[in-house]
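Q: Fold this one first, please.
A: Sequence and structure below.
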Amino acid sequence: MIQLAITSIIGLIGGLIALRFKVPAGAMVGSMLIVAIFNVITGKAYMPQDVKVITQMAAGAFIGAGIRYKDVMDLRKMIKPAILMVASMITLDTFMGYIMYNITGIDLVTSLFACAPGGIVDMSIISGDLGADSSKVALLQLVRLMSVMTLFPVMMKFISSHISDSKGINDSLEKNDEMENKELCSDMSKSEKKIVQVGNGKKDRAINLTLTLGIAAVFGLAGYKLGVPAGAMTFAMVAVAALNVIFERGYMPLNLRRLTQVFAGVLIGERMTYGDIIALKSVILPAFILLIGIIAVNLLIGFFISRASGLDLITSLLASTPGGVSDMAIIAKDLGGDAPKVAILQLARYVCVIAIFPVLIKLLCT
């Protein structure tokens, strides 16, 4: 219990410092880095994995509370970018695995699984069944996840600031920055703003928040128990979105979103151990190849989806970033992206990678 409290406090401090220095997705990145450092030095970081389910529920509630009727109508446009993204990602990541195999001497199965844009645990478990070196897969997947969460938010913000056709994105980022310096009511849905004007703001916001969290918890738990990929987040998101679309009662305050980001970062950071740092010596070259490949693949797919489907560039880049479903959706709003669309495309990526990649690797290696 003491370790949990210490880890939480350290994560909060890291998130607050990063936010203070305006680091992109600072609440998540700051908590992740400082907890990782703390765990490497002391080995004392601890966060129960049950918190991951709660974090996913909160992330789903936040995304769902931002979905309106218009967004539901726009979902029909997501089929094309989802197909384009999954097809191009599997093709390019398979090619990257072959490059790693030929340059580093790591066996082909291990190289392909190391480059698979799936989850650390999922890819590590599946890879062992197909004869890969699970420890190398887990280590390279960890490098991928840490690199994505540390470098990509900065890269996305740089791209949004320096590409001429992203004026709308820049406007969105400026609005988000302004919102962070205002009262929490500036982060409310239109229905909440009307309520505040009537004079019953605090009471109605409390009711809406209770409804939102309650529905997210019930449906998120159902999704988790059913074993659906990212089920806690997905079910919570859909249920809260329905609440907001039908009744305009979905509400998640800004501070709760920040707290969700902090705990998402802590969950990633506490996985990093001293043993991982030592083991990095044996995978420096493949890790470097993986990092360069991830950046190249992400940029290629993001620009391709944006041009082919009409989605804005930042949303396309975040959707094709091989991070966690909830992680990318959580930071989307901070970077000017469309969180619901990012969540849908990330979920499509995750499900298809888990379903298709192992079968593809087995075919390629036999």
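Q: Good. Now the second chain.
A: Here it is, same layout.
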Amino acid sequence: MQTIPVENVPGSNLQIRVGDGVIDEAAVAGEMQFHPAADRDTAARSAARALVIQELLRQRAITLGLHSDGFSDPGENDIARMLEQELTVPEPDEEACLRFYHHHPERFCEPPRYRVRHILLAAAPDDAEERDRQYRQSTRLIKTLTQHKEYFTDLAQRYSSCPSRDQGGDLGWLSPGQTVAELDRALARLPEGLHDRPLASRYGWHVVHVDEHREKRPLSYNAVQERVVRELTEQATRMALRHYLLALEAEIGVEGFSLDDDGMDGSLMR
């Protein structure tokens, strides 16, 4: 049978055969909406790969008689039940878990934390006049606070547009990702104390005081043991599923496409 390389999908004569089933151009085009990518060819390859995997699993479930009513195609529950029966996923032992923990210390750390107070001088991004006015106001506040740090609570309650003004500007303990991106990036490099310049964000200008900065620190193995086991089990499951699908591809037969490439993992569980 003449087939078209997947690099050309969708093409006018696209045809992928999986056992006794055929995946045509229209099916790939319909699946592409679920595989956003930088370019059309990449999306088409991902879509074709997902459809091949679905068809392999469907045909295997039918062979095993695992469709619920015996008449319609197997559903998601049938496929899940089949995979539970047919996949062999070894449980990670203690030695493997400890080795993984020690080889990946960056994964098992408490993130850095910052105890922060701020005063927000609100100004919309497109209001140049107001942003300029609020910038000047924020510099005056910083000048005052440089000489009288004890005024921070009063000034926050008087000037800040953030709800934290009711707590004297106190944002509490923050970890990366818990505040607006512009402020989040700045906190990673700010020392403790009052920052000597206003910090800009989409909301306006921030007068920032870092009360305390705690660096990230490694967590003990006992604290993350369950997470280590879970990560290793997920890795083993993906590997077992990959081998299972490659075996199905060889047994059932696929023409016009090959699963044996580095891009398969992203489509395994669709």
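Q: Anything worth noting on the second one?
A: Strands lie at 15-18, 21-24, 109-110, 113-122, 170-174, 193-194, 199-201, 204-214, 217-218, 254-255.
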